[in-house]
Amino acid sequence: MEENISRKNFIRVVGYLKENLLEQVKNADGENVIRGSIIIATSELESHKIQFYVKQKNKKGEETEEYTDLCELLPHNTISIASYLKENSSANFAVASSMATKVWATGSFDEFTKREGEIETTMILLKGRKGGIRTSNDKSDFVPCATFTTENFISSIEKEFDEDGKETGRYILQGYVPTYDGGAQKISYIAPVEENVAAFISKTYAKNDTVTLTGDIVSLVERQEGEQSKESRSFGRSYDTQYVTKFIRERRIYGGSQVPIHQGEKGCISLEEMKERLLKREEKIKAASMSRKNKSNNVNTSSSTSTAISGEAVYDKNVASFDNQTQNPSRIPSADIDF
Fold first, then answer.
1. Domain tally for the chain?
2. Average pLDDT in the 55-83 region?
3. How far apart are CA 269 and CA 178, in angstroms?
């Protein structure tokens, strides 16, 4: 396996600043850093949390462009929807968003381990690299969005079923995205029925192929009317729950490689490479788990904690996750790949 080779892993979010939890501090080494998170609303029902940990200077001692741009996003320079509503409680989303700072952020998906009791899980958060304020001088139109582009080794493609066991018509694609340090991140995607995405992927892509995927990061809240059984219906005023709040968090594919790269072809992520990368991933998850145990022995922590597999510093423990996959704490699953 070639060392220090990574594949595409890019996210971009544009919208209205909903909440700002960034802060400028010094780390344990005395370096200036900006850490914390921002939440960007792309609509009234959809918003995305991006985590940041950006040092002021690079290895050459020069201030980085990322740090300079992120300084503009510090709370004293911005107006968030949350801060506006605090002072104007009667305002609706349309009014509050029109007053909020328009912002953008770019970065990558980042896999974390999380332990809840005796159960070990992995989850995906949005890790910010750059961020800034949209201005009137920007040449491109302001279009709220949350998109991704990733390059994946496909470990499985399976039909999706609803709670009643019926096929939805969609497919779940599990992929591994190689990382710079020789590991890999496991990321799941949804191939929707719309625009014939599910049909194309089920017919064209296969396990062990290498593909580029593009699409939307979906993180929204839906309020649906709940169904009542005939037995529960009654006349007059009802105090039963009439609505159900549903959270939808997924990475929805809307584009990608027209022709996948098969095993043995130039540019593929080989089975041998993935075997080494999954061993590295297993080592990193075990190290993250051990680090979490050591911290819990030294300080009082909640029963639910999270640790970055990458080993990089992230400020907010309560990370915004998309999916949790139950893992055997003693082993990271690699059986979905045939070596």
1. 1
2. 94
3. 9
